[in-house]
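Sample A.
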Amino acid sequence: MKLILDAAATHEKPRVDRIHLHVQVSNIDAKRFYERHGFNEVGIDELYYKKIKPSGAWIMEREGRPST
């Protein structure tokens, strides 16, 4: 995770301002993991997964680089 976040923070072309990911709504441990790494829930996609249940996913977001 640290390598990905560090790469996003230093990437210039294109600049990475935000990182988004989806977490299945039944996966509380994964959501907590991403929250510990600075991600926040910004929404829910109720029909994100087509072949697994539950089909909903939390949409998580984090800044790609620290604010200046």
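Sample B, a different protein:
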Amino acid sequence: MTGSAFDELRWRGLVYDATENVPEMLAGGQVSIYTGFDATADSLHVGHMVPLIALGRLQRYGHVPIAVAGGGTSMIGDPSGRTSERQLLSRETIESNIESIKRQLAHFLDFETKTNTALLVNNADWLLSLNLVDFLRDTGKHFTVNAMISKDSVRMRLDREDGISFTEFSYMLLQSYDYLHLHDHFNCTLQAGGSDQWGNITAGVELIRRVRGKPAGALVYPLITKTDGTKFGKTEGGAVWLSSQRTSPYRFYQFWLNTDDRDVVSYLKFFTWLGENEVRELEDAVAQRPEQREAQRRLASEMTRMVHDETALRKAEQASQVLFGGEVAGLSAAEVADIFADVPSGEISAERFQGEGLPVADLLMECGVVPSKGEGRRAVEAGGIYLNNRRVGDAGAKITQADVIDGQFLVLRRGRKNYWLVRVRP
């Protein structure tokens, strides 16, 4: 790879701020870099992906990435970006969350390479055994309350009526101690994270300078925003998670596919492994052929393949075509429910499809597709009715259990875009 890791991050627009020594550090020999991830849920979400993928980029340039699972700090709660106290979790819940997150990290970091193997550590291993008095004497004395309350994350909370607890106020000390511990035990000299972490990270840089008399660096990435003013990583259904149990690959694919033209080029730079020339070609496509949405389709495919796999991507692409008349066969009931979650739906007993089956005109009327059986027959004869995205050619056709998808659903369509989902109850 040409250039330095810092140059790579800079052309992608990922350098929000950095201490002055960082460009030289990343252009020199191998550097150990750490980024922390909280364990307040059993999955990471797309908001975590900028620092995650950035760690992967740094590893590709020969540096050593250290992912720190916040088993200890998650018991305290980071006040950054919060307007109220976090709910405290039990140690058992946090440990369970970390086990789930570990599997997701392997999509971005290489834990098997021999030269610069990625490391995953849990700060509970050193934080939970700290002696309070020793910690306050050896670490706390290097922090002034004046400096701590000047940090944006703290000052914002002090201005609110409910304030900030001493628990969350102490978070900066613990994160700084993490940096010192990693410096001592893993030769870590650079911490990276979102721009809201600048105060915490530079506090750790200062702690290493005071306690060890050695230089360390800080690098922060921009917090991703959307041009339309809505929050990145949120949909009507909530956060977009990396776990397929929380956000299906289809919904994940759709999130990226629906990216605004004004944001898509930036997202290609931030989130994908595509090089500068490929991104430039897709940028030209946005400018010249926006209706084809080439950049969005490439973004959605790259992200779905990265976070899930090739099979999940193919399924997501198939599912995305279903709403445009694509093949329904081969989809599971869960996938059908996901795709048609927002269309009108109704229920019919499975008994109605036994024996000779239910006349199609009856089904259309009972589901509200047409007002009468006669209208249903005429709609079929006109060629405008589809069952499971296949045209019904016979007005006298009967629907049987064999037509029911995965024993649970039927998909009706009138015309090109008017869908109804029929739930078949036992």
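Observation for Sample B: The radius of gyration is 27 Å.
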